[in-house]
Design brief:
Blueprint (H helix, E strand, L loop, with lengths): L1 H13 L3 H12 L1 H28 L6 H44 L6 H17 L4 H23 L10 H7 L9 H9 L5 H8 L6 H27 L10 H11 L1 H33 L4 H17 L5 H27 L4 H22 L1
Length: 374
């Protein structure tokens, strides 16, 4: 059971906001391109997670990434790790704020503007981050179970309406020479597959069976990949060109209501709201603790920075779901990956032939993301 719980802890956390962007991105580039990205980036993520797992086993206590960086890369490495961790968490919290506000709007009043509902979502979440909550992990575990139940219910309800040709619409446009979106999936898929922060926690869960860590890591990535591909098949297969950035909004949602019925859509929106909200609070608590415990900022100021920085970004107009996960995945998580690879080279210098090509891929992704989203 410890092994199963370690797997579900990592996989359940990985399956999150990025899920809702994937049908739209597939619409832009086509199914075969997305599949290639999952194969290539999935393999890269598995390797980096395996390397981080080895680092965890060789380091005496359960540290976060900045702690590992300080041990293996010194003070400069620690500073870079803190910067990428904090900015990455800011971006991820902003992602859940954008999504949560839209899900709440669709659930209560689709014709109204999203701002009032986003602010309500923010106030409730910020209050829980301020006071703390201990039940988030259990809620997220059962949220994953609920998600799988809803996903299969949607599949069986809408199977007759799935048009497999919808998966290849983007591919057809690219065959006509429209290559501008070819690299669009990079940051979003990296964001959707990344779970390195949970590896030390999984190690702790395994207890005396720590050596199982290297065996379960590939499984923890494979499960989200299969879930994502199934989700893409269902949503894009049904909604086609009406697919929106958040999958469950706009014209796409209207099309799904006609096919699945209002009750099923309400259930799906409630699930989306629950998962984004629990993740918003969980990531907020994590960031507050990083600022409070590690950087020695006062508790209340750490809370204010954690909550209001993403809100300010939202209010000044940073509301593109795809762009935010692209930046977080393509830049911040890529920096985390490079740090892990450099640390791994310290303990396994004989495997530099593996490390340098992976660093090159991540650096290329960072350069692309900076250019594309600037």
């Amino acid at each position: 059971m410890k092994t199963i719980y370690a797997i579900t802890t990592i996989s359940g956390t990985i399956i999150g906001a990025g899920l809702f962007a994937l049908p739209y991105i597939t619409l832009q580039v086509g199914f075969w391109v997305i599949l290639a990205y999952f194969l290539i980036l999935g393999s890269l993520v598995v390797l980096i997670h395996l390397f981080f797992g080895e680092l965890s086993l060789k380091t005496p206590d359960f540290k976060r990434l900045p702690g590992f960086a300080k041990v293996y890369l010194g003070k400069n490495g620690e500073i870079v790790a803190y910067t990428s961790t904090i900015l990455g968490l800011f971006g991820a919290i902003l992602v859940y704020l954008i999504l949560g506000g839209k899900f709440l709007t669709e659930l209560i009043s689709p014709q109204a503007g999203t701002l009032p509902f986003t602010l309500f979502y923010f106030v409730v979440g910020a209050a829980l981050i301020f006071y703390g909550i201990k039940a988030i992990e259990k809620v997220e575990f059962w949220g994953l179970v609920l998600f799988l139940v809803i996903l299969f219910a949607v599949f069986f309800k809408g199977a007759a309406f799935i048009n497999i040709e919808n998966l290849f619409i983007g591919q057809c446009s690219m065959s006509n020479g429209q290559w501008s979106n070819l690299f669009l999936p990079y940051g979003a898929i990296l964001f959707s597959l990344w779970g390195a922060a949970l590896i030390p926690e999984a190690e702790e869960i395994l207890g005396k069976r720590k050596k199982m860590l290297s065996r379960i890591i590939p499984i923890t990535i494979l499960i989200p990949v299969l879930v994502y591909l199934f989700f893409i098949y269902i949503i894009l297969g049904i909604t086609g060109v009406q697919t929106t950035e958040e999958a469950l909004s706009g014209e796409a949602l209207s099309g799904l209501k006609d096919i699945l019925g209002n009750g099923m859509i309400i259930l799906a929106l409630l699930f989306g709201l629950l998962t984004t909200f629990t993740s918003f609070v969980a990531l907020g608590l994590t960031l507050k603790k990083v600022l409070w415990y590690d950087l020695k900022i006062s508790k209340n100021l750490a809370w204010a920075i954690t909550c209001f920085s993403p809100l300010i970004l939202y209010l000044i107009g940073i509301k593109s779901f795809i762009a935010v996960i692209g930046v977080v995945g393509g830049i911040m998580l890529a920096i985390d990956g490079i740090l892990i690879l450099l640390m791994y080279k310290k303990i396994k210098p004989q495997r530099a032939y593996l490390v340098y090509p992976l660093i090159f891929v991540l650096l290329g992704g960072i350069i692309y993301s900076v250019i594309y989203y600037s």
